[in-house]
Structures are given as C-alpha cells and as structure tokens.
Amino acid sequence: MDIPEMMKAVVKTQKTRGAAFQIVPVPEVGPGEVLVKVRACAICGTDVHMYQWNAWANENVEKSYSGLPRIMGHEFSGDIVKVGEGVTKVKVGDRIAAETHIPCGQCYLCRTGNGFNCQNVKRFKNGVYAEYALIPEMSAVLIPDSLSYEEGAVMEPFSVAVHGTSFTKVAGDTVGIIGAGPIGLFTVKIAKAMGASEIFITDVSDYRLNLAKKSGATHTFNPNKVNVVEKVKELTGGLGLGTIFEISGNVKATKQAFEMLRKCGTMVMTGLPSEPLVLDAAGDIVWKAAKIFGVHGRDVYQSWETTKGLLGSGCVDVKPILTHYLDLFTQFDEGFGLAEKGLSGKVIFILQ
Ligand SMILES: [Zn+2]
Ligand SMILES: [Zn+2]
Q: Which residues form the Enoyl reductase (ER) domain (predicted)?
C-alpha cells in the first residue's frame, strides 16, 4: 500500500473554541511504532473539553498531552499499514483499536502490576483525527473479527466502563448509574449482562435517558424534574442501591449518589468533579461502611480482554449507543455540537 506524504487532519491550533481542518505530514514510523490507517474514531469527554478549550483544557492539555498545535482525538480503530523496526507482536493488515495510556514499565506502579496508573504515563505523540495515526506497538489491541471499525473505535471507552464494573458484584442486585453519557450507557449494558436485578439511571438529558431505557435501564430519572434520592428510597423500601456508578462528575449529583447508596454498598467513581466535593463523611461513608473505588482509565489489559469477550461474542451490543455517524473532515464541528449538548450517545467519525 502506498502511503502518501501528506494527510488530512483535524487539528487543535489555538487555545480558543473550535478546531481546524488541515493538511499535515504523515508521521514517520520509528522503532517500536506502528502506523495505522484510521477507519473510525470517536468523541470522548476530554475531546469536548479540548474543543471548547475550557478551564479543564487550559489546566491539563499541555501537561498531559503536548503543546499546540496537536491533532485531536484518541479513541479510534484502523488497519496497520506500516511497522517500525523491532515490531513483532502486530503486523501490517491487522485491524486494531488502541490503549491510549502508555506506561513506562519501570516505576513502582508498573512493577507492581498497576501499569494503568503509571507514575510516568505518556500519551500518543499526536492525536488520531487524521487519515493516519502513529502509536507504539504495545498500545495496539486486535479488534475481534465480528466487530465493525465503528464498534472497534469505542472499545477504549467501553473498557473504562468494564474497569468500573470489575470492582463490584451486581448479579441479582440493584445498581444506580449517575450520568447517561456513553460510559454510563455502556455501564447499563454491562450491568444488564452481569445480571443486575434493577438498573436506575439519572441524567438531565431526556434524550440520553431514553437511550438508557432502550439499553436496559429499568428506572430513569431526570434530577431536574424529580427528587431522585426520594424516588430511589421509595422504590427500594428505604434501603438504597447496592452499587452506584458515579460517572457524571457533577458535584450535586455525586452527593446525592452517596445518599442513595445502601449501607455496606459499593460506590464506583469515574466522573471527574469540576469543583471540590463536600461529603458528610460520617453518614455517607463511615457509618454506612461504604466501599469506594476510583476508576482511572482501563485496567490494562484485563479490561480490554473483557471488552473483547463481551463485544466480540455479541453478549453486549453497543451499536444502539453509537447514535451518530459523521464524516470526520467535513462534519467535526457538528459532531462536537451534538456531544456537548447531550443530544447523542457516542458520536462516531468515519473516514471515507
Ligand atoms: Zn477517551
Ligand atoms: Zn510506570
């Protein structure tokens, strides 16, 4: 396959709202790296922050990623078209998705089996909203043959939801999910597959609550319309919920989540609060004997293998959650508009 010298890309060029379509050089493939022809990519919450260039982006993007200009995006799938020197685990023609955190392999966390939370974690040199993406060999994960590129592009965020569910047992028990964005919707599907008896979900977007219902949620609540804590208490005989997944990052919703948690219940926190969270530690944690878990990315590569098993077998079907398919280079503004308004499940960009 002929690889051109230049390629189309969606680039963050300035610390202001928006992104730019540009023609940029196709990256050179170094030792241990693979070049991927991008087939599909997805919008993550962090991409929305970067697109808007809000306070979070101002604080984190250059620290965690690189300076601008930077090609946007990190969730994607595609075909390997070139491998660098020393690459042995994948080959040209492989269909892959990618783990986006690159552990150092040397630090205390890496050496003790917690490489997902590496002290020196790195990201891809550049983003993936382009015709080609360059990633380290170790980041590549094969996509099951039964999955499309579009489904492959969401294996990374799906694996975050998988990681969250790994901390708890939900079979025959009640589950609460705070936030019906893509990770929340994936969590509904996984909880259902794991045998949860009842799945409660809250979100301020009725569009997303409707998607949650279709995905298997048994109770959907819009906190702008009802008192969700009262509702949950009422429907559980005052007990509260056995496991709650806090995915919204909304401080008020997180406080309510602790109030809805059953005594001795499990709180799994994935959302990033935008302001300090004040809890009644005695009532909400200590006397409740709550178990609290933080979810940082994916448990590499356990979460990925579980994702392959759940999606590859058809046990979980994510297609209904992939609500919008848009052309990357001509419709990226539209895609970000949908994602930021909550008028979508997962937005997928396809490359012709
Ligand atoms: Zn992501
Ligand atoms: Zn490390």
A: 18-349
Give the whole-angstrom CA distance, residue 320 versus residue 308: 18
Per DSSP, the three-state class of 271 is coil
128-160 residue pLDDT tens: 999 999 999 999 999 999 999 999 999 999 999
Angle, CA 177 vertex, CA 154 and CA 46 arms, to 5°: 40
Give residues with Cβ within 8 angstroms of 200, minimum separation 6: 174, 175, 176, 177, 217, 218, 219, 220, 221, 232, 235, 241, 260
Instruction: Tell me, yes or no, if 49 is annotated catalytic.
Output: yes
Cα-to-centroid distance, 154 and ligand 1 (Å):
9
pLDDT at residue 29, rounded to an integer: 97
Candidates 338, 37, 298, 281; CA nearest to 154 is 298
3-state secondary structure of 31: coil
Phi/psi for 131 (5° steps) reads -70, -30
Q: What is the pLDDT of residues 205-221, one digit of tens each?
A: 999 999 999 999 999 99
Please, what's the largest Cα pairwise distance for the chain?
Answer: 65
- Ligand 1 centroid – CA 239 distance (Å): 34
**Catalytic-labelled residue, pool 13, 49, 88, 220:** 49
Structure confidence at residue 13 as a pLDDT band (50, 70, 90): very high
Distance 226 CA to ligand 1 centre (A): 31
Question: CA–CA distance from 229 to each of 112, 219, 254, 261 (Å)?
Answer: 40, 13, 11, 10
pLDDT of residue 279: 93
7 Cα: distance to centroid of ligand 2 (angstroms)? 33
The verdict on whether 324 is a catalytic residue reads no
CATH code given to domain 168-294: 3.40.50.720
Q: What is the ipTM of this complex?
A: 0.94
CATH class of 6-158+298-350: alpha beta
Q: Are 241 and 174 in contact (CB under 8 A)?
A: yes
Domain positions in the chain are 6-158+298-350, 168-294
Q: Which ligand is nearest to the Cα of residue 49, counting in written order?
A: 1
